[in-house]
Amino acid sequence: MKKGRTHCHFIHKTNFFWWVLTIACIAFGYPTLFYGCSSPAAVEVPGGEVSVIHFKVSDEVSPGADTQYNTDVFVFNDDALKRLDSYQRVRQEGGVIASRSGDKIFVAVSNARTGDWTDIYSYEGLSSTRVLLQDEDPDNPVSVGIAGIRAGSGEVNEIRMRRLVAEIRLTGLRTDFFGTEYEGEPLTDVRVYLTNVSGSCKIARDGCPPPEMIVNSGRLDELSLKGFSHREIIFRELGDVGRDGVGDDVSFFCYPGDHKEESQGSPFTKLVIEGKLRGKTHYYPLVVNRGGVSGTVSWEEGDDGELGVGVRSGRTYCYDITICRGGTDDPDIPVEGGMVRIDGNIAGWEEKENERIVF
């Protein structure tokens, strides 16, 4: 299919049939689903004017791989009830969608594996819909764009997309046991994974709610990984790691974990490095971006308020880690002083300068 052309669930033989369907739906007051590939100029019909919304989506923060999935576009009335006005599935680049004129809430959802959306009738229903981490594709993560628009204005509406996942990127991992009993030895059987990650995320989050379901609660749960389409988004095996370190960056993906208080039911997300020294398993758990928490890597608070507050959508948290001595006995106990040396930065809407933090 050529770039920019929409996917259509129904192919209408003539524009006449399409307009008959449109007018009938509006006249009888039902939530209208539009699937047409082309849309003529707006016309006056009972119940309101049919307008054409031109739009394109911008996914600046999403990975650069070609999208293999579609974008689902919803238009809701911007009033007290926020009922669905129209819906269409399109290519990610954008397209056109018909709706009645007026103030609207425009929502675009890319790469979601949630089915055909037949039970969505309002903005509240869509925004509370959850996607699952086990269904995420690291090359094509679920991205969402929400904007208020004026249908019938004739303008092209650019919708800025933001992925729901955050990226935890390991840009370097090596050992430096100089001056310790392990000097010159590698860390063997190395595994790196995320713990205490949210297993689901709402299409539209309100505030910083605690997670409703936890994956890898306190430690690696290999049984739960079997349900993942791409388990590498939260788990990797790296083999032996010595002074030369690993060659390439390693990326993990998880949903937001920016709730303010930690509890047994809502723990903070950790990046855990696990390996063996002389046959004994050692853990190096790092709490991701939590100011004032033991074993965390965080940076001075920025003007955007994003730093030191946990994991947030659309951000990339980068770690370059040097392991300096033996670790902890538990993957849920954060590292202590002298165990690791870290260069870290946060990337997202703007790059942050690296700062070295030593534990």
Describe the structure.
The protein is mainly beta. It is built from 3 helices and 23 strands. The protein has helices at residues 15-27, 123-127, 222-225, and strands at residues 44-45, 48-58, 71-77, 84-90, 94-100, 102-110, 130-132, 143-151, 156-160, 162-163, 166-175, 187-195, 197-198, 200-202, 214-215, 235-241, 250-254, 270-277, 280-288, 296-297, 316-323, 340-347, 355-358. A 5-stranded antiparallel β-sheet has the order 4-3-6-8-10, with no helix packed on it. A 5-stranded mixed β-sheet has the order 17-11-21-22-23, with no helix packed on it. A hairpin with a 7-residue loop joins strand 22 (340-347) and strand 23. The radius of gyration is 24 Å and the shape is elongated.
Keywords:
about 350 residues; five-stranded antiparallel β-sheet; five-stranded mixed β-sheet; 23 strands; about 5% helix; disordered N terminus; disordered C terminus
Q: How is this fold's topology laid out?
A:
Layout: H1 15-27, E1 44-45, E2 48-58, E3 71-77, E4 84-90, E5 94-100, E6 102-110, H2 123-127, E7 130-132, E8 143-151, E9 156-160, E10 162-163, E11 166-175, E12 187-195, E13 197-198, E14 200-202, E15 214-215, H3 222-225, E16 235-241, E17 250-254, E18 270-277, E19 280-288, E20 296-297, E21 316-323, E22 340-347, E23 355-358
Parallel strand pairs: 2-9, 11-21, 19-20
Antiparallel strand pairs: 1-2, 2-5, 3-4, 3-6, 6-8, 7-14, 8-10, 11-17, 12-16, 12-18, 13-15, 18-19, 21-22, 22-23
